[in-house]
Amino acid sequence: MTNNQYKILSRRFDRNDAHNISVYEADGGYVGLKKVLSHMSREQVIAEVKESGLRGRGGAGFPAGVKWGFVPEDVEDIYFMVNADESEPGTFKDRFLLDYDPHMVIEGSIISSWAVRAKLCVIYIRGEFGWLVDRVQAAVDQAYAAGYLGENIQGSGYTLNMIVHKGAGAYICGEETGLINSVEGRKGQPRLKPPFPAVCGFLDKPTIVNNVETVASVPDIIIDGASEYRKHGTEKSAGTKLFSVSGPVKNPGIHEIPLGLPFNEFFHEWLGGMADGEELKAVIMGGSSVPVLTAEEAMETNLDYESLAEAGTMLGSGGMIIIPERCDMVELIQVLMHFYWDESCGQCTPCREGTGWLHRIVKKLRKGEGTLEDLDLIENVCEGMAGLTICPLSDAAVMPIISFLEKYRPEFEALIQNEKESISSSRWAREIRS
Amino acid sequence: MNDAGSVFTLSPESVAEFDKIVERYPTKASALMPVLWLIQDSAGFISDDAVVWISEKLEVTQARIREVISFYFMYRDTPQAKYKLQVCHNISCHIMKSRSIMTHIEKQLGVKPGVQTGDGMFVLEGVECLGACGMGPVMQVGSHLYEELTIEKVDAIIEGFRSDQPVTPDTDRKLEG
To answer: Which residues of chain A does B67 touch, with a Cβ-Cβ cutoff of 8 Å?
Structure first.
């Protein structure tokens, strides 16, 4: 990892001992929690986080402080949940936070829970991170023993319990209402909104769900203040962000960047360019669900929420997938369509049926049995899926395939052996004839 | 479905763990997922008898328990191979040539994905993203990951399991303090 000046969230990633509470405390840990409990009001904490411009780091980018402000005043049972279901293909940043710096996540979770008056905090870790469940549970036990959790925390009168909940392999549980249903002991199917979870969530009580990286950012914002946090990043995309980079570059892995960094600079100076013998073809900027950018498009954009939106894609989770020239784009989209079809929760017809259709059409194309009408059919199926379901999984399947088809159409067409023959044998043509 | 009462039993240690879980969760039903993990981790899979037992203990219907087991990929209701080699076949690992790893393991084990070896030791499964994309290709075995797989590394891992001297997984890093 290069560029140490921006290593804030990742500052302890090269240590092998920060999972230990005494090491974390000696490095300034739990000072933020002590500060809020003794010197700040809840309103001040929420105002500070709002002022920092911290946006949800899971993918949606919603301002964290604003979300906290939605919890109604007159309710007793409030829950806080930390989304560590990190399952978006290309994303592996939260794993590092939980592995190398679990106490920073726990401290941020306690401060956040206190700010929204939660009585129980659940850290929801995806089932595939089995070894992390043990790591985080051990850290939670240490935090209880040190008096940062449990009854009357640090003599403040505030009581908070914390559960480490292990998922069991379902991408959809990363959607916040799917996650809530999962903690209730149900299938992780998302709920219709409104009501939003901040009003009616876990056990029908107000529930705030925040991503791991979001809560991990909170202690520094509390200790150093919002203005310090804003020293990095842009006006609307404040702070630093963890990017998890995969694919054949010289330096894949976790890179913490100041938001707004030009991709060109990031690619050449931080990632070291492509691995030997590889050439850049395309980039998926924020996890598999966002529209793909061609190499040329990528080189012209900056890495922040607004610039990426302008470029027609999204910053998402910061799960950056580097696609080399040797890759067949139709093959890659088949891999992704299999994923969304496999992970659709089956609740909404457009998604349940649509993801299956998309997967089957791409498979057929790759078998050499496709027709030109199949390309229209992809677009047609996508029209029936986007924005028509309870949660965004349907859109998450549509965005990659539509962008792949639009930007790499010749690769799709090359799979259609003989245009005339394929038209005459299509179902459409047969129907006309009959 | 079985209405005759459960014949399922847990070890005293697991019963103690069960009580701890139920105490920690705000409602009995919300303890379902950790209880399913507890049973699967101790028995290897979740049997019909276990479903009846959970249903009585947590006061949730058997239908709901079965629906949860089948919804989540990692819960299993049949006996499993000792070592499940779960190779990621999603986009980042695919770009890093996970397909060739899959094909190689298939050849080494002599069985198709999803089919257990005759001795019940291994099964190969292609799985979705494991959250280790920058270290691909990756493979999950139990609660750990093996990363940056090569043909040679995979051979050593399989040999390690066969000779009962497992290769240390990449996620099992040495901690200090």
So the answer is: 187
Q: Of A336, A164, A396, which Cα lies nearest the Cα of B20? A: A164
Q: Which two tokens stand for residue A248?
A: 């054949």
The whole-model pTM stands at 0.95
Give residue-wise pLDDT tens across range B33-78.
999 999 999 999 999 999 999 999 999 999 999 999 999 999 999 9
How many structural domains comprise chain B? 2
Using CB atoms within 10 Å of the CB of residue A5, give its burial: 0 to 12 exposed, 13 to 18 middle, 19+ buried: exposed
Torsion sign, CA atoms A97, A103, A104, A106? positive
- pLDDT computed for residue A51 by the predictor: 96
CATH class of A3-229: alpha beta
CB contact under 8 A, B91 and A89: yes
For the stretch A3-28, pLDDT in tens is: 677 999 999 999 999 999 999 999 99
pLDDT, residue A278, reads 98
**Both tokens of residue A227?**
């203005």
Identify which of B135, B136, B143 has the shortest CB distance to residue A131: B143
Contact B55, B65 (CB under 8 A): yes
Is residue A63 classed as helix, strand or coil in its secondary structure? Answer: strand
Q: CA dist B28 to A184, A411, B22, B32, B68, Å?
A: 9, 54, 6, 7, 15
Do residues B136 and B91 share a domain?
yes
> What residues in B contact A19, CB-CB < 8 Å?
175
* Together in a domain, B97 and B38: no
**Does some domain include residue B4?**
no
Test the A interface: residue of B38, B85, B86, B91 with most A CBs within 10 Å: B91
Cross-strand bridge partners of residue A84: A125
> For chains A and B, what is the number of CB pairs under 8 angstroms?
159
From chain A, the residues in CB contact with B170 under 8 A are none
The domain ranges of chain A are 3-229, 240-324, 329-433
Burial class (CB in 10 A: 0-12, 13-18, 19+), A432: exposed
Task: Note down the domain range covering B111.
Answer: 83-162
The CATH class given to the A240-324 domain equals alpha beta
**B132 to chain A: closest CA residue:** A92
Could you report the per-residue pLDDT of A330-380, keeping only the tens digit for each? Answer: 999 999 999 999 999 999 999 999 999 999 999 999 999 999 999 999 999
Fold: same for A3-229 and A329-433: no
pLDDT at A428 over 60: no
Do the chains contact at A342 and B175, CB–CB below 8 Å?
no
Q: Check: CATH 1.20.1440.230 for A329-433?
A: yes
